[in-house]
Amino acid sequence: MKNLHIPAICVHAYGGPEQLQLEEVPVPVPAKDQVLIKVVASGVNPIDWKLREGLMQHPLPYIPGVEASGVVTAVGEGVFGKKIGDEVYGAVDGSYAAYAISPAELLFRKPTHLSFEEAAAMGGAKTAWGALFDVARLAKGQRILIHAGAGGVGHFAVQLAYNAGAYVIATASAENIAFVTALGADEVIDYKAAPFETLVHSVDIVFDTVGGDTTERSMGVLKPGGLLLCIVQMPDPEKVTAAGIRAVWGGTKTLAAMKEVHKMLERDLIKPYVRRVFQPLSQAAAAQEFSKNGGPGRGKIVLKISEE
Ligand SMILES: NC(=O)c1ccc[n+]([C@@H]2O[C@H](COP(=O)([O-])OP(=O)(O)OC[C@H]3O[C@@H](n4cnc5c(N)ncnc54)[C@H](OP(=O)(O)O)[C@@H]3O)[C@@H](O)[C@H]2O)c1
User: In ligand 1, which atom is closest to the CA atom of 298?
Assistant: First the structure.
């Protein structure tokens, strides 16, 4: 397949959605320990538009996308446990393309009970697992406040914390309260109706997936010595000390987190929710704009690239 070209979205300069150019690029060739997949669906995450806008640096040019589901079409030297025809999902850099490569160990067998669209939406689960368990060591019986319980990360965090036996309080818009309750939250606070800090207190952990003033406002709802677990921004260290709490960055994504999440997915203990599917690949700009400005959300946004 070396000389073949495939459609892919390319970013040559930071900027608005117009920077997402549909182009023809050479099909990537899997190196040692890598797998080539035909991408069926790509997850669309806030990091995609943040990178495109230059809020975070990425070498240019690049193909956006960090996760996908698809079918294995070639394997590199040394790959065991993955073969041509396998249906897989996982971490895939450059997933806004008809084909993409990834290290074989970052791809997992797609459970048959999951659609390709659902499987492409699993990235938030490993973020949530890494933050809650690798970093915060969430334990049974602890009280946790999860901000944005309906969001791409938050809806997994609620399910994971519920499964761990924690007492789960989440924030969400009124239209998402029933959804977040069904995921396992003991209490859901409509954050638009009243300031959450007037309704919740004495939690062991706040998982902040929102940022902005939510980060600082969360300090007062923690027990003395409680943990503010951040994946968007870190608070001012002086304010953390003054509040008598701890703050930590939770944005680690380990292979161990992916394996744990995959085991739970196979046992049907967690479920990805897809908010909206955009298709075909040329809709990448619309999908990113929806991710940035789409209003109340419930689960993940997906870009469908091909039929399986
Ligand atoms: N550091 C890392 O490793 C890492 C990894 C993944 C994500 N992130 C970051 O984490 C953030 C969340 O990602 P995501 O994929 O979950 O985003 P997302 O799905 O786009 O988040 C949308 C959700 O945010 C909720 N929301 C918005 N403002 C809120 C507020 N003030 N209080 C409570 N909820 C609010 C909305 O809830 P309603 O619809 O109910 O209003 C909606 O469900 C992003 O900034 C992303 O870049 C970081």
Answer: 43
H/E stretch holding 293: helix 284-293
List, in sequence order, every residue forming a beta bridge with 34; answer none if it has no partner. Answer: 103
Q: Which of 166, 122, 77 has its CA nearest to residue 259?
A: 122
The residues of the chain scoring below 70 in pLDDT are 1-3, 295-296
For the chain, which residues make up each domain, given as ranges? Answer: 5-122+272-304, 124-249
Between 154-163 and 255-266, two packed helices, what is the crossing angle to 10 degrees?
70
CB 76 less than 6 A from any atom of ligand 1:
no
Structure token pair of residue 149: 């319980």
Residue 297's pLDDT is what? 79
For the structural domain made of 5-122+272-304, what CATH number should be given?
A: 3.90.180.10
> In this predicted structure, what is the pLDDT of residue 15?
97
d(CA 177, CA 148): 11
Within 115-193, residue ranges assigned H as helices are 116-119, 123-129, 154-163, 177-183
Fold (topology level) of 124-249:
Rossmann fold (3.40.50)
Going along 45-173, which residue ranges are E strands? 67-75, 87-91, 99-103, 107-109, 143-146, 167-172
pLDDT at 209: 97
Q: What is the pLDDT of residue 308?
A: 79
CA-252 nearest atom, ligand 1: 3
Residue among 49, 199, 206, 209 to mutate when testing ligand 1 (max atoms within 8 A of CB): 209
Cβ count near 213 (within 10 Å): 8
Q: What is the DSSP letter of 66?
A: S
Kindly state if the Cβ of 251 falls inside 6 Å of ligand 1.
Answer: yes
CB-CB contact of 149 with 167 (8 Å): no
pLDDT computed for residue 254 by the predictor: 81
CA of 52 to the centre of ligand 1 (A): 18
In this prediction, residue 294 carries a pLDDT of 76
Residue from 103, 109, 124, 134 nearest 36 by CA: 103
